[in-house]
Structure to design on (703 residues):
């Protein structure tokens, strides 16, 4: 696509934007936000719409999207609690619900005497917090990420969580993004600020009502101060016709720990970028991922872990299960900067092909500029093992059940890392059902 | 050798089998009646494990000649899972690890699948738990066995005990134990042998595949067969295993030569 076309695409989107969609009563207080959005619009205009000629998009053809300048979703009639019941998570005491990108206070559940701040970004009390200004748009690299720039340009609302110093939230926080409209784009946004010694578990969950085609363009930013410990579970279970373009950016200060599990099941085309930046020593991250796709789905995960400081540890395990004519892409970049001595980093990419027409592209990418480091990586692509299938059949199980059980077992290792039992159980069932359907 | 007129469970006639165009089994004949224990001995590469896999229905092996009758059925017409449902059980030499699937889950799935096919009652998780724990006592297995992933991180002895536990649950008519004794220390061997002896009765039969006489001290066979190059070259009673242990496999060749010499 030419640059002119990219600008056309942007213009088309801009023209559809309501005159002032952001909290019009508080315009004078929001200069910083307007500046941020204008900068993002400029960046989006400067960047090209990515094509397969870009190294970062080599395996993921998003050209169908360029023909679909879906307008931003509009606020529609409210859903009832019963509509979202199937997606609710028993353990979660705090829930923020966004319908097509718009915050729904009726469906959300927020306990009153919170030790921490949780709410929607557009709420006047929250947009005023200097913390929002200090962090929003500061971690995600939208200067070279077209879709993150678009998200920032069209930022309407989002989830904001601020964990004050020493605050430990034991019950998981559920951020539920529901898509209900056809041929629109929603721009969900998450910002988590974990101050010193804070702890929480956050579930970022993308779901759909119905089988609509729509675009989700989301950005999540997580900032962890010294010794903060955050579990982040990301679940992408969009409709099978949807497009999901997402970026997460994580900034880690000294001794902080970030553990994430990302599950990709939905969307026709999905792309997830995860950037982790070690800004100080002795921080740790564990990032695990599972993509399980079939039909003509394409799921692309690009991760980038930047060991900019010494003594940090990163562990990554990414698994893909591809059936039918689906296509999974994994690109895992690990950078160890010249002064990042005593870095300890491991990465494993394991892939299971269930069909002769399915495709896997996996690319571990290590750029190591320090000499005293421990870095291990490995990538495997395989099929279900005939000996394993025979073993199960020799115990009376039929071929289908044997294959499903082994497929499930392949993914279970990642699901086991989810520290929320009911969500883990729901996803286990989703994966077992998925294997049954595909067979 | 005892005279047994019990019903024939298995009748193998001139069985030839190949893997990828290489013939491994070159005419096996074997009759097994209910209540019997048969030991098949032989050196590595003689075709013992292939024979076990062919009986269990491994898809990589192709039967090119001969027949296998099992309980008045043509065994070769049945898929691996149908054979298991019909009562053929193979205890694997190298049991497969299935990380992420709890042993209890797997055992119950296998048990209920086979029960359903046999028109018998299935058990819910609680009932099954009681049932399996009873069987585990026989093999001196710790309760945490049930919560661990199938064979994952199990020691050699634990894996073999897990195989015999599955045999205890599935109650086969024909149990085939493929080198169940290999890699076991003497205590584990005794536990496994005790389990097998407990499961053996006049209504079923067992084929033990082994290199060593050691196992046969604890599970006493009615017949010992020696395999070489894809055939059974000698059959005798339990004393044959002792002679092999004393004289080695070469002794059979000399013995055969002597026999051949005597007949001319």
């Amino acid at each position: 696509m030419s640059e002119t076309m990219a600008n056309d695409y942007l213009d088309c989107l801009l023209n559809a934007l309501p005159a002032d969609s952001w909290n019009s009563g508080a315009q004078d207080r929001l200069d910083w936000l307007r500046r941020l959005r204008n900068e993002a619009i400029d960046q989006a205009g400067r960047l090209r719409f990515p094509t397969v000629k870009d190294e970062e998009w080599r395996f993921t053809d998003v050209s169908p999207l360029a023909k679909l300048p879906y307008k931003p979703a509009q606020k529609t009639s409210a859903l009832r609690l019963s509509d979202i019941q199937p997606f609710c998570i028993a353990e979660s005491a705090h829930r923020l619900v966004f319908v097509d990108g718009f915050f729904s206070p009726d469906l959300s559940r927020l306990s009153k005497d919170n030790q921490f701040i949780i709410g929607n970004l557009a709420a006047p009390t929250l947009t005023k917090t200097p913390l929002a200004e200090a962090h929003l748009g500061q971690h995600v690299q939208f200067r070279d990420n077209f879709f993150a720039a678009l998200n920032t340009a069209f930022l309407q609302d989002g989830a904001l969580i601020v964990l004050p110093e020493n605050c430990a939230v034991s019950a998981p926080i559920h951020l539920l993004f529901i898509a209900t409209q056809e041929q629109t784009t929603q721009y969900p946004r998450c910002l988590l600020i974990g101050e010193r010694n804070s702890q929480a578990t956050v579930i970022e969950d993308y779901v759909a009502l119905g089988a609509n085609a729509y675009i989700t363009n989301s950005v999540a930013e997580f900032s962890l101060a010294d010794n903060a410990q955050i579990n982040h579970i990301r679940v992408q279970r969009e409709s099978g016709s949807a497009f999901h373009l997402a970026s997460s950016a994580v900034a880690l200060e000294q001794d902080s720990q970030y553990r994430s599990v990302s599950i990709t099941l939905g969307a026709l085309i999905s792309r997830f970028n995860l950037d982790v930046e070690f800004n100080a020593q002795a921080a740790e991250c564990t990032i695990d991922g599972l993509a399980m796709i079939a039909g003509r789905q394409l799921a692309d995960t690009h991760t980038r872990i930047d060991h900019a400081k010494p003594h940090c540890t990163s562990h990554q395990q990414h698994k893909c299960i591809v059936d039918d004519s689906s296509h999974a892409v994994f690109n895992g970049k690990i950078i160890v900067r010249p002064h990042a001595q005593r870095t300890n980093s491991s990465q494993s990419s394991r892939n299971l092909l269930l069909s002769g027409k399915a495709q896997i592209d996996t690319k571990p990418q290590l750029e190591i500029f320090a000499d005293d480091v421990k870095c291990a990586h490995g990538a495997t692509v395989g099929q279900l093992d005939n000996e394993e299938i025979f073993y199960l059949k020799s115990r009376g199980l039929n071929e289908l059940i044997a294959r499903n059980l082994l497929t499930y077992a392949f993914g279970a290792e990642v699901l086991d890392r989810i520290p929320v039992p009911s969500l883990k159980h729901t996803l286990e069932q989703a994966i077992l059902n998925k294997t049954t359907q595909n067979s | 050798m005892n005279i047994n007129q019990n019903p024939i469970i298995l009748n193998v006639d001139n069985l030839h089998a190949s893997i990828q165009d290489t013939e491994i089994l070159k005419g096996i004949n074997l009759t097994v009646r209910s209540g019997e224990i048969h030991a098949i001995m032989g050196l590595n590469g003689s075709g013992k494990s292939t024979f076990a896999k062919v009986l269990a229905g491994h898809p990589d092996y192709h039967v090119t000649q001969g027949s296998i009758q099992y309980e008045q059925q043509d065994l070769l017409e049945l898929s691996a899972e149908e054979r298991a449902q019909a009562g053929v059980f193979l205890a694997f030499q190298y049991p497969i690890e299935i990380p992420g699937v709890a042993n209890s889950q797997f055992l119950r799935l296998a048990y209920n699948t086979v029960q359903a096919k046999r028109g018998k009652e299935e058990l819910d998780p609680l009932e099954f738990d009681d049932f399996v724990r009873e069987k585990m006592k026989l093999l001196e297995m710790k309760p945490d066995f049930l919560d661990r992933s199938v064979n994952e991180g199990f020691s050699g002895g634990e894996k073999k005990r897990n195989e015999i536990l599955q045999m205890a649950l599935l109650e086969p008519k024909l149990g085939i134990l493929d080198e169940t004794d290999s890699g076991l220390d003497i205590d584990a061997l005794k536990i496994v042998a005790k389990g097998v002896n407990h499961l053996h009765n006049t209504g079923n039969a067992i084929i033990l595949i082994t290199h060593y006489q050691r196992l046969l001290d604890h599970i006493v066979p009615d017949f010992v067969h020696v395999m070489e190059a894809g055939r059974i070259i000698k059959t005798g009673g339990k004393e044959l295993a002792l002679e092999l242990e004393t004289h080695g496999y070469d002794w059979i060749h000399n013995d055969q030569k002597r026999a051949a010499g005597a007949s001319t």
Q: What stands out?
A: Chain B has a mean pLDDT of 92.
